[in-house]
Amino acid sequence: MAKRAAEEENTSETRTAVKTNAGDVPNAAVPSEDVDAGEFEDPYGDDFESDGEIIELDSADEDGDDEKMDEDKSALIEQANKDEEAAASEPSFYLPHRSAPLGPDEVLEADPSVYEMLHNVNMPWPCLTLDILPDNLGLERRNYPASVYLATATQASKAKDNEIITMKISSLAKTLVKDEDDEDEDDEDDDDDHVDPVMISETIPLKSTTNRMRVSPFAQETGEYLTALMQENGEVLIYDIASQMTAFDTPGYTIPKPAKKPAHTIRTHGNVEGYGLDWSPLINTGSLLTGDCLGRIHLTTRTTTSWVTDKTPFFASQDSIEDLQWSTSENTVFASAGCDGYVRIWDTRSKKHKPVISVEASNSDINCISWSNKVNHLLASGHDDGVWGVWDLRKFSNKEKPSPVALYDFHKAPITSISFNPLDESILAVSSEDNTVTLWDLAVEADDEEIAQQRKEALDLNDIPPQLLFVHWQKEVKDVRWHKQIPGCLVSTGGDGLNIWKTISV
């Protein structure tokens, strides 16, 4: 998966059309007074007078034509300006497969009517990864203002400037959509009701860029917020950030110094960086998979006294391991995806450390995978050619290539992240280097009568899959995560910081 630092946005003056006012309409020619020729009259005087009269009449007609042309020109200019203003004021929607790239003086504005919540958090540096910290505020939270706990790590220009950033963001308000026809009776009351979000953060210094970060799914249950970081320098750091969580909710609490140092460092990968990283959702003591760019996968488990990493790697190809996912139903089974286009299924009990099943899922790199925790036999994969699909693991076989349950080529740039909604078995979030995060509902049937009628009436929908629910724009988006305690809430990271959002579609 390619990494690149997010570029700063260039600012430039907005170009505006200048209206041109019509000039003054020229006056009609005034006939000259008659001139007395004297008693010696020119025998050709009548002819000249006749010519003069003709010329005078022609001149008047030309002036009239000029006046009409100027009026027509003014009308055309005025109409063109009106059309330009109307086109500029009329909103249009952005779709990666159809819309042209933004110009240097163009920006996209979110439509507040389609968001239930939308907030942007500026970061000191771009962040390639993030994860959501489970909290004690309850499940199925739908009330506002909302609060979220997050962890991310930076991609600073200098290695020594990198850090882990843990944060609590509260007072996240619901998106307000005002009706232009409604008049505000009391502006002061409206100002009092509006409260800006509040962020409290704690940092931990790092020596390298973090390619991927994942928090243990048992953090809330065990009280240990084990957080693993796959570093660019090849090290895998494991921190316990429980003290940072305590500091967020306990005024005056001092974080002890050991809490800012890793509880364990995995150096088995040497100086080879990687991206594959995943905690087991079934082993609460802590079982961590790590994969590097040489195709090696190591398993690290926790004993009562220490962490132990298996020195013998799981290995099938020298192509980079881009993502790893534990099975959501079997505690010894996991899946890997790599740059060779294969999805492989492994069993940690194998003494040979070889895959049980290898399936070619793409002709390009597979950048990310997601194992559904609602339907245990479904696995989603995102590819470097912009295609993503969903696979039925029951049909995986070494003998023949299976057909995907679903396959979409809507995105026109590499897929950077893919994730099943933990609270809804049919909904997925997909991020791409085309600067969008899309939401999909696989339960939608293309032959549904209502959908068919809508597609018939709106020609713009003909090339849009009916399963597409929503398109969210975010510059250089890299990672997207669902909030398990706030239904429909997502957090995504990109070149312009973090986005915390929830749509009316989910």
UniProtKB/TrEMBL annotation:
Presence of the UniProt keyword S-adenosyl-L-methionine in the record: no
Which UniProt keyword terms apply here?
A: Nucleus, Repeat, WD repeat
Xref: Pfam families:
CAF1C_H4-bd, WD40
Species: Australozyma saopauloensis
This protein's name? Histone-binding protein RBBP4-like N-terminal domain-containing protein
- Residue ranges under compositional bias (Acidic residues)? 33-69, 179-194
WD repeat boundaries on the chain: 314-356, 359-401, 408-442
User: What are the boundaries of the region Disordered?
Assistant: 1-74, 177-196
Q: Which GO terms describe its biological process?
A: ribosome biogenesis
* InterPro entries per record: Glutamate-rich_WD_repeat, Histone-bd_RBBP4-like_N, WD40/YVTN_repeat-like_dom_sf, WD40_repeat_CS, WD40_repeat_dom_sf, WD40_rpt
Subcellular location(s): the record lists: Nucleus
Q: Name one GO cellular component term.
A: nucleolus
